[in-house]
Amino acid sequence: MARNAPPPEPAPAPAPAPAAPRHELFLVVDFGAQYAQLIARRVREHRCYAEIILPQDLGRRISGAKGVILSGSPWSAYEPGAPTLDPAVFDAGVPILGICYGMQLAAHLLGGAVAHAAHREYGPARLEVLPGGDGLFAGLEGPLEVWMSHGDRVERLPEGFEAIARTPAAPYAAVRHAGRRLYGVQFHPEVTHTPRGSELLKNFLFRVCGAAGDWTMRSYVDESVERIRARVGPEDHVICGLSGGVDSTVAAVLIHRAIGARLTCIFVDNGLLRRDEAEEVLGAFRERYQIPLVFADAGPQFLAALAGVTDPEEKRRRIGHVFVDVFRAHARSVPGARFLAQGTLYPDVIESQSAFGGASQTIKTHHNVGGLPKELGFELLEPFRALFKDEVRQIGRELGVPERFVRRQPFPGPGLAVRVAGEVTAERLAILREADAIVREEIEREGHDRDLWQYFAVLVPVKTVGVMGDGRTYESVIAVRAVKSVDAMTADWADLPRAVLQRVSNRVINEVRGVNRVVYDISTKPPSTIEWE
Fold first, then answer.
1. Of 190, 223, 475, 531, which is the active-site residue?
2. How many Å apart are CA 77 and CA 527, to the nearest integer?
3. Regarding beta strands 113-129 and 162-167, do their DSSP bridges make them parallel or antiparallel, or are they unpaired?
4. How far is Cα 412 from Cα 220, in angstroms, rounded to an integer?
5. What backbone torsions phi and psi does residue 11 show, to the nearest 5 degrees?
6. 82 DSSP β-pair partners
7. DSSP string, 474-513
8. Is residue 190 annotated as part of the catalytic site, yes or no?
9. Could you say which of 108, 150, 188, 330 is catalytic?
10. Which of 255, 310, 453, 512 could form a disulfide with 485 if both were Cys (CB 3.0 to 4.6 A apart)?
11. Of 263, 325, 327, which Cα lies nearest the Cα of 289?
């Protein structure tokens, strides 16, 4: 693990966040961090507008900022080639908060000393707040539980800085230069593992920076409509990839508000959907919205492309290619189609791309991000590329999207293909569809779904011996996955009632032919991902 890297999670690529000139601007400088977008998200939760930028852009942007937050990084501040800043930014008079690497880099550039720590800190730590931290730590007089993830530490503070918090392994766990309004924390306040980290960030925004907190999802909706109208010309048409999920549905409603009948939705039935899903989506969407909708029955094409494929990344690649081919074919029926709209979210980008296009690892390719060919034939219109799922749900409510759409659990673009572990066949898809329907029915029966982020079945690529009646069976295994999360960046397995799991197991084994064993996945993210593939 890199010296300052947080627990293994996808490293985000800086995404183009929408401009918001009407609001106070906070800049999050991304040094290749795994949690840069989480920092921006936490800022937005406090009704302050945030954009993610690259280090080389801070010099020309800082004069228009209300405050700046420097992210973590897998680098060490003293390493040759490590991402850096022009030290002049620290003299701009704008409040700056450095997080982990951000704090170390500031110390390094301003004359302090950073070195490899004799005692690394990865995981929870008890933070002692010292005198002088009343601005950043107002109302947080500790001791506080914080999340550490660093192998380096500040050994000597630059002139004018003082420690305002410490842990046994980090004497400078939080520092400040009062005269210059510069702050640094060695821990990660943006992650949920730091329970009161959001309060600390709020203190920075409002007590240190004097924020007004005037940015809302209503603002985002109004300004998004204006941006779409400005980008999509009066003769241009947009086609939207509609899956029936939260993201694409809300994107379609938002774009329709902006350009009206010049939007056409294309619903691709890839043969990899859940039981009765195509019929439900088509019926509900046509009933509620007066948006032109094209139905593409392409199941056989996708299944043929997946024949013999077992590697998850190859599955995603092939699905992505067929997806685009189908769109191209049906787009010919839409005169003037110039844009392809997608409900791409930032977690999709995070898991599909590497920070700065560099060497950080791609976790998995999403068909609407890393799977798209370079010569797509359309310009992409992705109004939610810088947002998380819960923010899109808020936008949906602002737009009046029915709650049954807004609350739908996330479903992967490649569909059941990444829940059929191993080769995807019609027979294995049929087994999974029936098992998955039972899982969802039983979890939803008593309202347990209200507390869950996702819940579904996975068909495991092994068979096990069982006994039914007096006979031996050798059949498939179904794994049940149910997780709690707030943003899909981290997730914990749900402690479902024993009675629910018992009913799921009993029904799956008795009602789904070809299954004789049910197991429950108790893995967290990280180190596991929510989906199995």
1. 190
2. 26
3. antiparallel
4. 25
5. -85, 125
6. none
7. EEEEEEEEEEE-SSSSSBEE----HHHHHHHHHHHHHHST
8. yes
9. 188
10. 453
11. 263
Full DSSP string of 231-257:
HS-TT-EEEEEE-SSHHHHHHHHHHHH
Spatial neighbors of 473 by CB under 8 A, at least 6 apart, are: 465, 466, 467, 516
Whether 78 contacts 115, CB under 8 Å: yes
CA–CA gap between residue 12 and residue 347 (Å, rounded): 8
Dist. CA 25–CA 35, nearest whole Å? 19
Could you say which of 9, 23, 100, 442 is catalytic?
100
3-state DSSP helix/strand/coil % of the chain, to nearest 5: 35, 25, 40
Residue 177 among the catalytic residues: no
| Cα–Cα distance, 336 to 215 (Å, whole number) | 35
- CB-CB neighbours of 373 under 10 Å: 10
CA distance 19 to 21: 6
Which residues, at least 6 apart from 183, have a Cβ–Cβ distance to it below 8 Å? 95, 96, 97, 98, 135, 136, 174, 175, 176, 177, 204, 208
Residue 431 phi, psi (nearest 5) = -60, -45
Domains of the chain: 25-208 (3.40.50.880), 217-406 (3.40.50.620), 420-520 (3.30.300.10)
| The residue count for the chain | 533
Q: What is the pLDDT of residue 375?
A: 56
What is the pLDDT at residue 1? Answer: 34
Phi and psi at residue 519, in whole multiples of 5°?
Answer: -125, 160
Give the pairing type, strands 67-70 and 96-99: parallel
Interior angle at CA 412, CA 374 and CA 38, nearest 5: 85
Provide the sign of the torsion angle of the four alpha carbons 239, 241, 245, 248, taken in this order: negative
- The total of other beta-carbon atoms located within 10 Å of residue 491's CB is 21
Whole-angstrom Cα distance, residue 284 to residue 402?
Answer: 10
The pair phi, psi for residue 8, each rounded to 5°, is -55, 115
- Of 243, 224, 413, 248, residue with least CA distance to 342: 248
* CB atoms near residue 216 (< 10 Å): 15
The reply to whether 23 belongs to the active site is no
Which structure tokens are listed for 88? 């002049």
Distance CA 150, CA 74 (A): 9
Per-10-residue mean pLDDT of the chain, 533 residues long, equals 41 42 86 86 92 93 97 93 96 97 97 86 91 88 89 94 93 93 96 93 97 90 94 94 87 95 93 91 81 92 96 93 86 87 76 42 45 65 86 93 86 92 97 98 94 96 91 96 87 96 98 97 92 94
d(CA 7, CA 280): 39
pLDDT at residue 89, as a whole number: 97
**What backbone torsions phi and psi does residue 297 show, to the nearest 5 degrees?**
-90, 95
What does the DSSP assignment read for 402-444? -HHHHTPPP--TTGGGGTB-S---HHHHHHHHHHHHHHHHHHH
